[in-house]
Structures are given as C-alpha cells and as structure tokens.
C-alpha cells in the first residue's frame, strides 16, 4: 500500500470521517502512520470495590442484582447502576445511552472499566466501558493506544484505521545507515512504527519510541547543520560604527544595566561592528532585561542609517514593545526614528501607509507580528532582524524574515530556560549569549507548593490581593472537561470563580482555541486592569507585561514540566509589588513533591532546567512534555536529553564521513532529509 494516498482509501472512512481526521491534521496515509498515540491504556485485572483508587482507570467485576435505573437530568438521559460489596459502593453512570437499560441484564456478570472519581462524597465511574468476562480476558494485560481526538472522532475510529494501514508490514523504507543503527542499538523503522501504535510489550514500546525520538532529533539536527554557514559566507554588507547615542541612552536609563546585560550588549555591539554577519541567540530568564538590549541594537542600526525589524508572537506584546520603544525614543530626543507597528488587525488603509513607510525607508524601526513576513512587506535597507520569544516561531519563519533584507544581522531572544549543553546543539547555527543575572531592584517571587486542601485559603488570599487593587492569574491544564483525565479545566473553573468571587470581580477566561481577535481583546482588557482575575491555559506563557498582576495559582501543577511552570511564573513579579506563585497539585507522590520543591527553592530558570534534566532522566515512558517548547511529535528535549545527545553524536559521525550525503549508504537518508526539509521544518519551532 502506498502511504502517499488519501485516508479515504481505507475501509469505513467516508467524507464525514475524513473531515474529522482533517481536524487533527491527518489527511494522508503517511500522516496517519505517524499520528502516534498520546498515551496508552493498560487493562489490568479487575479489583474489588474496597480497593478502588480515585483518579485512576480501573476495572471491577460484578453481577447485576437490579435492572439499571433510567432518569432525566438537564436534557440528558442518565442510566445508573449502583454496585455494592459490604460497606463499599460504586455508582456507574452513562449519559444518553438509553439502550443500556435493555442491554445490561439482571443476574449477568460484567466487567466495568473507567476513571474512578469522587463526587459529592460518592465513588463514581462515568461512561465506563462494558465487557463480558471473555471479552475482558482478550484485552487483559495489553497496552492499548490512546490518540488525541476531536469532537466526533473516537479512539476506536483511529485505532481501526491505523490497524488497517499496518496490515501492510513494509510501509517505510529504512533510511538509517546500518552502521548507525547498530552503533546506537536502534530497531528497524517498520518494527518501531508498528510497536509505537500497538506494542506487544512495554520493552518493545520503549525501544520503538527511542528509535522514533532519535530520528526526530537526527533530522532536526541535520536540517540545522544545513543552515550553518561558513564564516566566509557570512561576510556582512552591514558593517556599522559604534555610536555615542547608545551610551547616552544607557546613561539616561532609570536603572543601571546589570553586569550580564553590559556583557551581552558588548557582544551584540561587537557583532554589529564586525565583518561577519551576526547570528546570535540571547538567552535570559524572564525579567532579566533582554528587551532593552534589542532596543539598543535597533537604535545603533538607525543611527547608522539602516532599518531594523523586531518580530514578536502576539499583537498585545507587539503593541507593548512599540509603546515602550516610543517612550524610550521620546525620553532621549530621538523622535526622528518614529517606530511603526505592523500587525494583522490593522485596516487595509493603515497597512498600506505602513508598507509605504517601510519601503521608502522613512521608518527605520519596525515592530510587529508574523505580519512582517508577508510578501507585501518590502524593506529598503533592512540590516538587523530580531525575533523575540524565539521558540514561538518556526525555523523557516526566522529565515523568511532574515531574507527580507540583503543578509541582515540576526538576533534571536528567548526566555525559555534550555541548559547550555542542549542549547548548543539545538541552536547550532547561532552564537549564544546568556543574560544570567536579574536586576537588583526586582523583588523575588514568593512560592509555595501545596495540595488541594489549601484551595480555600488560596482563594481568600487572592480576594485580599484583588481588594488591594492587584490582579490574579489561575492556570488550568485543560480547556474543557475530559472523561479521560481528572484535571481542572478553564471552562468549568471560570464558572466556579464567577460564583466564588461574585459580581464585583471581573473574571474571564483565555485559551488557545479562541480566535486570535478574541484572545487579543481579553489580554488587552487584562493588561488595562479591567479584568481582575484571568483563568487561562498555558497560552499566557508568552503573554504580556502586566506589572499589576501579583498572584498566580497553577492547578494540577504536577501535569506541567518544571521549565514550563517557571515560564508561567514569569507572568507575575513584573512590578513594584510583592508577587506570589501557588503551585497546587493533586498528586501526593514523593516524586511530585521532589520535583515541585525545586520551584519552591529557586527562581533561577537555568538552575531549574538543569534540575529538571536530573530529576526526569529517562523517567516515565512519556513523562511531562514542556508543551509549546518544541513541536516534535514524540520527542521532548528535557525528558529525552540523553537521546538528543546520541543523535547529535550520530549527526557528527555521518557528516564527518560524508558531508553532502553523497555515498550510496546515505542515499535513502538524503532523500528522507529532503522530504523532511519541505514538510517538517515549517512546523518545528525553537
């Protein structure tokens, strides 16, 4: 079977199902093949009612002593069964499945399996699966794939489609050279794909995942190596002179630059004056003062008669940078360099005017979002390109902006705490500078790690902060409730907070499924102080500067990676008032306590990232992904740091022997890399 074909070629997939698959990014058989499970379900032995554990999926065996009850509730039909064993009780509930009243027979024995929860003092299972004894024995002990879904697309539909596809055992031609596979003890590609979907054992699953993660890193690093240029090819057209104006701006700042800021500014200034085009990454913790360094570079570029562009991921952040730059220029009598702001939401007339200012060279400082890389935007003499919150942009987007000029200098900034050892590999085409010091006047955030028993106390504390005129963030891991996971969600939590805080407090929600215009509006209202309590997913991780926000409560903190929790925490502590971060977890395990305690002890993102590496190690099979950091299908740079280092070693070995991949044993690798460069690099962001 050819994997280039449409999924419509599979039995049972019609137009409607095809549309559902398209919503999760699966249109071709190739995409389905690599639509890996997000988790696995292990069908363990049934347990007695007294041994049930909440927040876990478990199975119970029971003989029905009564016919199931049927009742109506809020336009829903409920079918309920109560299982009793001595003093232990379990209520089973199914929504809108009235046929079960006739299907489940009194006197028959069944195995019921689902997520065990405690609700209003009762132990319940909602929508449990139903098996006969024989059927349950058939799945017992197996690891069953759990796929990411959308409304209308069921796990059963995806599983059935993947099974059909895998019936043809040879779907991928092996592309790794034999010596690399043997040297790094990697299984064959078709075995790995088969076992990642339907593992015959945990050992097979671990081996399959390791191979596929290795491949993701290998192709990414090979692609990055293609982007590296020799020093000769990086000779610049834009050799600038040092200017006194930057020194005057530094002197006039209402604060003194830290030693780290001064060191990094000297590195940037030296690059801009040199013969070699700058390709530099500035890594610095949230609040370490990277933005002023970008502004100084833009002022130096303008003083040399050239243009610079600063691209950021959100409209609200772009507007804040624009206002901050305007203010800095006014305070330093540099109003001839009036910056322009280009975002997607301007009117056609406003955009045309801005395009003209950019094309004519009238505007030397341009700040904007992805709108900067549109074809209509033409620069006159673009000498410096800066991307802020770099990991939110794809590698290709960075390239597109840098190609807008005649090989401009490139400066990328990131607040993502990636340990230096990994950053050297991942940003192989860039020199790295570290702003590893926070301004002395910045108040350290006060942290606490607590369980859910602290929730009411936390609410009282937040009410006190709001009464004092401050603002609050609450972070939840999910947008809506899920049958699969027992975790807080933004939709229900916002309703609860409106009741809890009353009409006098403005509570709103924010999540990634909202339209960009709606997200911008919410963030602007929060930034202006109109919204006092914002319930959000991690979409605020790269948000805006709201100095008045002093409290962040993170629900289900155990579901996030430490580096991501630290990024979230960076949304508070940005003003003159003392700020607080409450990490609330619903998991009492020792490992969770140990991990979260790292955040309690330190506000240093790079220390936290290093500790995260040590604590996670190979860890769980899938661990906790640092979502949004890098959009690999399976790989996670923290959890899979060891595999990343192995892939880096393999890339060096391959390229040392055959830099252009011209040898016969590398022909399939070269073909696959070329396909990857076309199809994948748009998606990967660092």
Question: Helices and strands in order, then pairings?
Answer:
Elements (H helix, E strand, L loop, with lengths): L14 H9 L5 H5 L5 E4 L14 E7 L5 E5 L2 E10 L2 E8 L4 H4 L5 E11 L2 E5 L2 E3 L1 H7 L3 E4 L8 H12 L11 H6 L5 H9 L4 H26 L16 H9 L6 H15 L5 E6 L5 H14 L3 E5 L3 H17 L8 E3 L5 H13 L4 E4 L13 E6 L7 H8 L6 E6 L5 H7 L4 E5 L10 E6 L3 H13 L3 E5 L14 H12 L5 E4 L5 H12 L5 E4 L12 E6 L7 H8 L10 E6 L4 H12 L3 H12 L24 H17 L9 H13 L7
Parallel strand pairs: 5-7, 10-15, 10-16, 11-13, 11-14, 12-13, 14-15, 17-22, 18-20, 18-21, 19-20, 21-22
Antiparallel strand pairs: 1-9, 2-6, 3-4, 4-5, 6-7, 6-8
Helix pairs in contact: 7-8, 8-22, 9-11, 10-11, 19-21
Question: Could you explain the architecture of this structure?
Answer:
The radius of gyration is 28 Å and the shape is globular. Strands 2, 3, 4, 5, 6, 7 and 8 form a seven-stranded mixed β-sheet that branches. Strands 12-13-11-14-15-10-16 form a seven-stranded parallel β-sheet, sandwiched between helices. A six-stranded parallel β-sheet has the order 17-22-21-18-20-19, with helices on both faces. Helix 8 packs across helix 22 and helix 19 (562-569) packs antiparallel against helix 21. Among the domains are: 1-40 and 153-167, no CATH class; 44-140, Nucleic acid-binding proteins (OB fold (Dihydrolipoamide Acetyltransferase, E2P), Beta Barrel); 240-274 and 289-414, P-loop containing nucleotide triphosphate hydrolases (Rossmann fold); 446-602, Rossmann fold. It is an alpha/beta fold and 686 residues long. The two termini are 35 Å apart. It is built from 23 helices and 22 strands.
């Amino acid at each position: 079977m050819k994997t280039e074909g449409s999924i419509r070629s599979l039995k049972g997939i019609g137009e409607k199902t095809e549309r559902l698959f398209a919503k999760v990014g699966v249109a071709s058989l190739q995409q389905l093949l690599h639509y890996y499970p997000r988790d696995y379900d292990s069908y363990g032995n049934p347990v007695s009612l007294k041994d049930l554990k909440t927040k876990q999926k478990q199975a119970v065996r029971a003989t029905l002593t009564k016919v199931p009850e049927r009742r109506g509730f809020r336009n829903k039909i409920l079918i309920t069964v109560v299982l009793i064993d001595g003093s232990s009780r379990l209520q089973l509930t199914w929504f809108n499945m009235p046929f079960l009243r006739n299907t489940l027979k009194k006197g028959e024995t069944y195995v019921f399996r689902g997520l065990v929860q405690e609700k209003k003092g009762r132990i319940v299972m909602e929508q449990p699966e139903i098996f006969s004894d024989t059927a349950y024995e058939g799945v017992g002990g197996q690891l069953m794939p759990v796929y990411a879904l959308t409304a209308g697309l069921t796990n059963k539909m995806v599983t059935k489609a993947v099974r059909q596809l895998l019936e043809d055992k040879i779907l991928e031609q092996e592309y790794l050279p034999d010596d690399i596979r043997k040297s790094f003890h990697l299984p064959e590609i078709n075995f790995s794909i088969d076992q990642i979907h339907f593992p015959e054992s945990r050992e097979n699953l671990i081996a399959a995942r390791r191979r596929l993660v290795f491949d993701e890193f290998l192709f990414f690093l090979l692609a990055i190596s293609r982007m590296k240029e020799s020093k000769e090819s990086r000779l610049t057209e834009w050799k600038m002179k040092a200017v006194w104006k930057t020194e005057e701006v530094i002197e006039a700042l209402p604060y003194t630059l830290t030693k780290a800021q001064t060191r990094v500014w000297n590195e940037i200034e030296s690059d801009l004056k040199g013969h070699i085009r700058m390709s530099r990454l500035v890594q610095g913790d949230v609040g370490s003062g990277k933005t002023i360094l970008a502004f100084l570079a833009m002022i130096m570029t303008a003083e040399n008669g050239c243009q610079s562009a600063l691209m950021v991921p959100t409209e609200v952040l772009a507007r804040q940078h624009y206002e901050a730059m305007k203010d800095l220029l006014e305070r330093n009598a540099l109003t001839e360099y009036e910056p322009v702001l280009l975002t997607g939401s301007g009117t056609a007339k406003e955009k045309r005017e801005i395009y003209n200012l950019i094309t004519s060279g009238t505007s030397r400082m341009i700040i904007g979002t992805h709108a900067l890389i549109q074809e209509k935007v033409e620069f006159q003499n673009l000498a410096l390109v800066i991307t802020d919150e770099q990991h939110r942009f794809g590698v290709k987007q960075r390239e597109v902006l840098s190609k807008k000029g005649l090989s401009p200098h490139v400066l990328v900034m990131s607040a993502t705490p990636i340990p230096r050892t990994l950053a050297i590999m991942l940003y192989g085409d860039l020199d790295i500078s570290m702003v590893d010091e926070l301004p002395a006047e910045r108040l350290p955030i006060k942290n606490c790690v607590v369980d859910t028993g602290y929730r009411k106390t936390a609410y009282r504390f937040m009410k006190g902060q709001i009464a004092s005129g401050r603002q609050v963030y609450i972070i939840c891991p999910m947008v809506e409730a899920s049958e699969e996971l027992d975790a807080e969600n933004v939709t229900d939590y916002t309703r609860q907070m409106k009741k809890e805080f009353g009409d006098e407090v403005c509570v709103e929600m924010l999540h990634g499924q909202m339209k960009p215009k709606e997200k911008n509006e919410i963030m602007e209202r929060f930034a202006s102080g109109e919204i006092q309590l914002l319930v959000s997913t991690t979409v605020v991780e790269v948000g805006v500067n709201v100095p008045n926000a002093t409290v962040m409560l993170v629900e289900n903190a155990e579901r996030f990676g430490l580096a991501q929790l630290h990024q979230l925490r960076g949304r508070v502590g940005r003003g003159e008032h003392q700020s607080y971060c409450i990490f609330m977890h619903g998991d009492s395990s020792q490992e969770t306590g140990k991990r979260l305690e790292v955040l309690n002890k330190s506000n240093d993102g790079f220390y936290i990232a290093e500790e995260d590496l040590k604590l996670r190690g190979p860890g769980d099979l899938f661990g906790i992904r640092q979502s949004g950091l890098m959009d690999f299908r399976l790989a996670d740079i923290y959890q899979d740091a060891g595999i990343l280092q192995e892939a880096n070693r393999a890339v060096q070995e391959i390229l040392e022997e055959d830099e252009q991949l011209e040898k016969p044993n590398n022909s399939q690798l070269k073909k696959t890399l070329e396909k990857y460069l076309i199809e994948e690099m748009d998606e990967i962001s660092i």
